[in-house]
TrEMBL record:
SUPFAM superfamilies: alpha/beta-Hydrolases. This is Pimeloyl-ACP methyl ester carboxylesterase. InterPro entries: AB_hydrolase_1, AB_hydrolase_fold, AB_hydrolase_sf, Epox_hydrolase-like. Residues 11-238 form the AB hydrolase-1 domain. It comes from the Bacteria. The lineage of its organism: Bacteria, Bacillati, Actinomycetota, Actinomycetes, Pseudonocardiales.
Length: 266
């Protein structure tokens, strides 16, 4: 398992989504790693530079991989954040190891179990990736990952996201899609979250709309909901300043965050 580990402070673990790698968190690593925060960002099993394991990778497997990495690094309690699939891995990690979590960041993700239609789509997409690779798929989904107006205004962001997707190993991405098709429903378990939680979502996110974030906000007592205007599924890249401001405020008060809703941008 390859990972970035920078800084000497309290551990902050950031989990990437599908079909990305740990470089999606590079802006936040640069911003937060230092004396206050030790930022750990792994490449998940099957992605980036980590070993590719064909077949089916469940969220529990990803979560246990994280636990083993933390054990190897002699890290106990963490602030844990993830985007999209990474957010679902965060929810699964909390389900398995709640005693290891002192704060949660859930970005552009959904706690709802997969529908029957969704299961078919994920498995069909996995079949397609194995046949074709990720080239055509990446081009098709890019305007949903990054809002079309941001592809024009922020071409480097679009190039980064497209590069991550095209570089994702097909076998690893397909295995994750098959595993996510069988994921648990986390709506009820979110009611047991008793640590400070920040929920972030792009206002234009089609994959995990604002309504999904509002559902998590209702389920987690005392959570903070931040809606970032003008961003789609990748607000940490599309609206870096707003995302980082929200995360900084959260981290600075992680011992006693208060609830509420905030909107950044215009």
């Amino acid at each position: 398992m390859e990972y970035t580990d920078q800084g000497t402070g309290e551990p902050l673990v950031l989990v990437h989504g599908h079909p990305f790698d740990r470089s999606m968190w590079q802006p936040q690593i640069e911003r937060f790693a230092g004396a206050q925060w030790r930022v750990i960002a792994p490449d998940l099993r099957g992605y980036g530079e980590t070993t590719v394991v064909p077949g089916k990778t469940h969220l529990e497997t990803f979560a246990r991989d994280l636990g083993e990495l933390l054990d190897r690094l002699d890290v106990d309690r963490i602030v844990l954040g993830g985007l999209s699939m990474g957010g679902q891995i965060v929810m699964e990690f909390h389900r398995l190891f709640p005693e290891r979590v002192r704060g949660l960041l859930l970005a552009d993700t959904s706690p709802v179990g997969e529908t029957e239609a969704g299961k078919r789509v994920r498995n069909e997409t996995a079949d397609r990736l194995l046949r074709e690779g990720l080239g055509a798929y990446a081009g098709e989904v890019l305007p949903k990952m990054v809002a079309p107006h941001n592809l024009v205004a922020l071409p480097a962001v679009g190039e980064h996201v497209l590069g991550m997707m095209r570089g994702a190993p097909a076998e690893g991405a397909a295995a994750a899609l098959r595993g996510r098709a069988e994921r648990l429903d986390y709506v009820e378990s979110l009611g047991t979250v008793a640590v400070p939680t920040l929920i972030v979502v792009g206002s234009d996110d089609e994959y995990t709309p604002v309504a999904e974030a509002e559902l998590m906000h209702r389920r987690i007592d005392g959570s903070k909901l931040v809606v970032i205007e003008g961003a789609a599924h990748m607000p940490n890249l599309e609206r870096r300043d707003e995302f980082d401001a929200a995360l900084e405020a959260f981290l600075s008060s992680v011992a006693g965050a208060r609830g509420g809703e905030v909107r950044f941008g215009s």
